[in-house]
Predict the structure.
Amino acid sequence: MSQVEGENIVTLSCIAPVVFGFEHSLKLFIDNKPLYCFKLANALQSFVKRRLHPYLERIDVIAAAAMDPRFKLAWIPCEELQKEKISKMWT
């Protein structure tokens, strides 16, 4: 039963928090103007925007992350964005 509930495996609810967290870490890294791996960080940042952002627009991904007790709305960076994401779920 734990496999169905997702306690020990990755589920759809992990997508949004992981993408937001990875994007935030890359932004902090690039803002510090590193001497090494700057091109790699820029390439990763463009990859995230091109390939992973479409998942953040999906209602099911947002709803799954918001309803997961491990994440709730803690993965959304600011209160205004939280309200926007919540209103998308209910419209």
Q: What stands out?
A: The mean pLDDT is 79. Residues 38-56 form the longest helix (19 residues). The chain has five helices and no strands.
